Amino acid sequence: MLPTARLAILERLLQLRLLTVGAYVVATLCALFVFHWPVPWFTLGFICLLLLAYNGLSLLRLRLGQRGVQIPPAEIARQLAVDIIGHALWLFFLGGATNPFTALFLLPLIIAAASLPGRFVWPLTTLTLVCYTVLLAWYQPLPISEASLAQAFFLHTLGMWLAFVAAALIVAVLVAHIGLQLRSSERALAAAREGGLRQQQVVGLAIQAAGAAHRLGTPLSTLTLLVDELLAERAGDAALTADLRLMQQQLQACRAELGRLRADPDTPPPQPADAAMLTVLDDWRLVRPQARVEYAVLGEGTPPQLVLPFALRQALMNLLDNAADASPDWQRLVLDWQGSLVRVRIEDAGPGFDGQVLETQGLGMGVTLAVSALERAGGQLNWLKRAAGGTCAEVRLRAA
């Protein structure tokens, strides 16, 4: 269970204890002023004050948890144990096990079973059984006269109904909320586990890329020299010269990318978002000169500053590659911003998708690397279906 889930459970337990103490006070006042029973109101009030004092201390513990101090499962178990003992003390002075509100002993156990490991559930179960067994033999009976036995039976039946309603409402609201917190915690853990596996895959690819960058340096230098020599030797052949110029540009682009891969500063200087996107497009056009990409800027005012490290820049180029593969004749990059939020939409007119998550539809390693790079940069990638057909990859980034 994530620490945030335990924090939410502790907060709900404090709220439930306040409601319980309020119910104790109302029940005591009804016994004194409605039914005129000489109940030990001073002792009952002292029990309520003890529970409120412990609730105050627990509130301080909750504040520490909200500031980052971890809340262990033992803390939740301790809170439930205090509630069980407090309820047993209150019942001791009001009829013991004959009180219909003994049914509320089950609520802490239900909460424990839903939110705690078994090593805490069984001790709490034992504590509940001990308290209930003690109340069967030792308790102060309710001060009801023999003339009021018929009224007492009606009040007992009414108390059973109230206890059932209270238990049903608490289970429906509180325990259901705890279950929702646990499911959210499990989903967050699954997402974190998936992210960790993806990061391991990326690290493995990064190691291979570093080795490839080291090994490709010499072949690229050799090819560059050969192209330069061929350009000098075949200067009169216009068609061959054009092809050799194109090869020269591609080799320069490869060497530039290898240089960036080797250097790759952790924190490159920020630049305006529109200039950063133009740089990405220029780099991408070197390796995809046949691509037909449109570029549009929708943001108004001064563009926000954007930091694009090598990994993030490569992620955008991977998404552009994916768009060009799906739609060779048309792609579009749209830049927009609002405050500190920068949105980059990469659109294509390809076959699109059926509205399901695209990660499982074989988009290749490029998209996996893009998602990983965006997660590390605090960004987000959403896949959208274009109304005119095709796919839109929406990237959301925070300005520097």
Task: Offer a few descriptive terms.
400 residues; alpha+beta; Heat Shock Protein 90; 5-stranded mixed beta sheet; two-stranded antiparallel sheet; 10 helices
Distance between the termini: 34 Å
- Elements, N to C (H/E): HHHHHHHEHEEHEEHEE
Reported for the largest beta sheet, the result is: 5 strands, mixed
Poorly predicted runs are: 355-363
How many helices in DSSP terms?
Answer: 10
Q: What percentage of residues falls in helices of 4 or more residues? A: 55-70%
Beta fraction of the residues?
5-15%
Characterization of this structure:
- The chain has 400 residues and is α+β, with helices and mostly antiparallel strands.
- The protein has three domains: 3-194; 209-263; 271-398, Histidine kinase-like ATPase, C-terminal domain (Heat Shock Protein 90, 2-Layer Sandwich), CATH 3.30.565.10.
- The protein contains ten helices and seven strands.
- The chain has helices at 3-33, 41-66, 73-92, 106-115, 118-137, 149-233, 238-263, 273-287, 310-326, 365-376, and strands spanning 271-272, 293-297, 305-306, 331-338, 341-348, 380-385, 391-398.
- A five-stranded mixed beta sheet has the order 2-4-5-7-6, with helices on one face. A two-stranded antiparallel ribbon has the order 1-3.
- Helix 1 (3-33) runs antiparallel to helix 2, helix 1 runs parallel beside helix 3 (73-92) and helix 4 runs antiparallel to helix 5.
- The longest helix has 85 residues, at 149-233.
- The protein is rod-shaped.
